[in-house]
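Aim 2 progress. For Phosphatidylserine synthase, the working sequence is reproduced below.
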Amino acid sequence: MESGNSAVADESKDAFSYINERPVDDISLEFFYKPHTITLLAVSIAAVIYTAFVRDESRIQDNIWSGICCVIFFFLIVSVLTFPNGPFTRPHPAVWRIVFGMSVLYLLALLFLLFQSYSTVYEIMYWIDPNLRNFHIDMDKEYAVNCSDLSLPRIWSHVDVFAWGHFLGWMFKAILFRHTGLLWAISIMWEITEIAFAHLLPNFLECWWDSVILDVLICNGLGIWCGLKICKALEMREYKWVSIRDISSTTGKIKRAILQFTPVYWTPVRWLDPTCTYMRFFALSQLVVFWQISELNTFFLKHIFEMPPSHPLVIARLCLIGVIVAPSVRQYYTYVTDPRCKRVGTQCWVYGAIMVTESMLCIKNGKELFGQAQMWNVIVWLVIQILVSIGCVYGVVLYHQYFEPNRGAGVDSPKKEK
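Predicted structure tokens for this construct:
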């Protein structure tokens, strides 16, 4: 009995290690994968000594900035040495350790801001960028006006940089989720979310044709279609990796170096199947709702703290969340679909903490804004979110049961990257 329990424990540990700190399967250039801890320590200390003793210390603000950058620099070095790389190893495990380190730094920054007053947070932001003092949200600006003018030039005038952002964002989400039903459910529910919170966020007000035609059908729909086509092409591709040392031509070496930024393998995902448990069913429904909350955080943060959409802080947060979400979704998928995995990955755990902390930061500092909330709208929105997410997931189960009854359960092999 003890040997059987030990074997189960080892199997569970292996499944968790596969998503939390996956080893490199085939090392072709050993130099880039050998530890260089002493060299890294010496170079880091030399860089700090040089910058600390030769820089100008006459300005206090520059001194503080330099100290913060040095702390971040060393924290990311420690991240490379100690943190897990998650489920990905391309282009190098160190890249994903840095991503994990940046996510931890962001979480710590959010927790620090959570214990500050609204005015203190504003002063910190003004210290980072004094130009923010001159920007304020125009609450009197009118949105969704003249909606009866449904002409091609009017529709085309709305195809701006934000429309391209919608398209690229949904293409990225399609590559992450790789499931048509779930993606369309999230897309439609987001439009319902915009309607429910339009009284708090005026930029959520849209003409019906802007919401239905431009957002759902064109931007979101094309992004989902293109993302799934990319996934399909990567699934059909034959992966045979050759060491760069075995390639003779310069062109071949350059091509192999570029391909280092692509996955080792690409396998189809199967979030649900006819035999899935209720826990798996509700875990996926929970994911759909949490995704909506994470999207809402983006808009409430820049509205409450009054930042323009093009501000570097807004763009940097979106880019950081984007790279954090990739391993987080993969870890959550394995935790939900693989019965051998008993724990969620650390990157997914940190991302969950980030999502909750961002929401608390918005609620704490947006008391005046949320005081205007129409609770009936929020309650109806929450009920619709729960019902639609559960209904969508159940519909996917029925689809797999009646239209794909012979397809396997789809638990990924521990040898595969994605």
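Residues 408-418 have pLDDT under 50 and may be disordered. This observation will guide construct design in the next reporting period.
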